[in-house]
Amino acid sequence: MKWNLDPAHSSIDFSVRHMGFASVRGRFRSFAVDVETDEQNLPSRVEATIDAASIDSGEAQRDGHLRSADFLDAGRFPEIRFTGTRIDALDAGRFRVTGDLTVRGATRPASFEVEVREPIRDPFGNVRIAGEGKGKIRRKDWGLTWNQVLEAGALLVGDEIAFTVDIQAIAAEDREAVGAS
Fold it and tell me: What is each CA distance from 117 to 15, 17, 75, 166, in whole angstroms?
């Protein structure tokens, strides 16, 4: 079954160490996620496209630097893409999604854990599904190597990026009943 992203109730957030002791958090404001499930409502396909220029850490000067060639190079590489290649069940409602993540033209394998909730019917009669994915990547694996060594020896920007993807989607075609096969 195909699902249509509900962007008003979805987000892609990230955090990275700053100066070795604190975290900077942000999000991408513009993205698309395509999800399909099988007859048992288990995820069968996941693809995402993120507008690299939509990065928002809450500080305009830092966001400009993140869009620059030092980081995402959004002018040359306007999209960040994830294409799922494998979905493995971990336990009830939890999955490991593995796929190809492309950032700055470099494609590398990446995986994250997803918790998928059972479909429900909302007050407007739509069938909805929701999921939350969490993972970590090393930014250097995608050529994001800019950094600055601080006086105490710590790096200005950490290598590990943690991310959370919260998705709500509406069934592209209605079902007779929620959870029907």
Answer: 24, 30, 37, 11
pLDDT tens per residue, range 44-83: 899 999 999 999 999 999 899 999 998 899 999 999 999 9
- Who's near 180: CB < 8 A, 6+ residues apart? none
What amino acid is encoded at 106 in this protein? A
- Count CB-CB contacts under 10 A for residue 82: 23
Cβ atoms of 12 and 133 within 8 Å: the answer is no
Identify the helix (H) or strand (E) that includes residue 80.
strand 79-91
Q: Tokens 């479909």 identify what position?
A: 119
3-state secondary structure of 63: helix
**CATH code of the domain made up of 2-14+29-147+160-171:** 2.40.128.110
Is 163 in a helix, a strand, or coil? strand
CB 67 within 8 A of CB 59: no
CA distance 98 to 92: 18
Domain boundaries, the chain: 2-14+29-147+160-171
